[in-house]
Amino acid sequence: MGITTEQFLARIRLNPVNHLLLEKLPALGLPQCMLTAGCLFQTVWNLKTGNDPEHGIKDYDVFYFDDHDLSWEAEDEVICRGKALLGDLADKVDIKNQARVHLWYGEKFGKDFPAFKCTEDGVDRYLISCTRLGVRVRDGSLYAPDHLDDMWHGILRMNPLNAQPELFARKCRQYQQRWSWLRVEAEASGDDAQ
User: Fold this and answer.
1) Rounded distance between C-alpha atoms, residue 113 and residue 152, angstroms
2) How far apart are CA 90 and CA 62, in angstroms?
3) DSSP calls for 98-162
4) What is the spatial order of strands in the sheet that 60-64 belongs to?
5) DSSP category for residue 15
6) What's this model's pTM, rounded to 2 decimal places?
7) Cα dihedral sign for 127, 171, 33, 78?
8) 25/172 Cα distance (integer angstroms)
9) Which backbone phi and psi does 158 adopt, to 5 degrees?
10) What is the pLDDT of residues 10-58, one digit of tens each?
11) Domain extents for the chain?
């Protein structure tokens, strides 16, 4: 038995930080704004394991896409607006303009990415396929290109769009330390791909 989109969206809101962010972020008016990454799937894994929904979640990622001004100053202005809106919660929130990622990613992580065309392009590059999830702030809809089955069943596969075996293995080990039931499997291929 898996998890439906509706069940997933209900569960992630059981984490009070996710709930608050999804309520407050529309006020920033950011184009293509999305709550994404670990705060979503880790909340579900925590609930499935019987942990507090916030257990071990280090940060809450907020992506948006604005290619009108690719300067750091423009992104920093958005970050400052976010801090003013979110108050104490802002220290846990990482706001990033996906239109700028190609400008710094290669230097920071050693692998260049092409310029993204939308927020979803950033989500699509996560190391682990089942973690490619985002909730659109505008309407609360789910972006899940790999669906929810692998995430729900704890199956970790390397994302072929960001094949970095050493980083993938390290991230999987970190996750398995917190959720021992997760398992690493080879990437699905052909008709098995989700």
Assistant:
1) 29
2) 11
3) GGGHHHHHHHHHS---PPPSSHHHHHTT-SBGGG--EEETTT--EE-TT-SHHHHHTEE-B-GGG
4) 93-97, 60-64, 34-36, 134-136, 142-143
5) S
6) 0.91
7) negative
8) 30
9) -70, 135
10) 999 999 999 999 999 999 999 999 999 999 999 999 999 999 999 999 9
11) 5-187
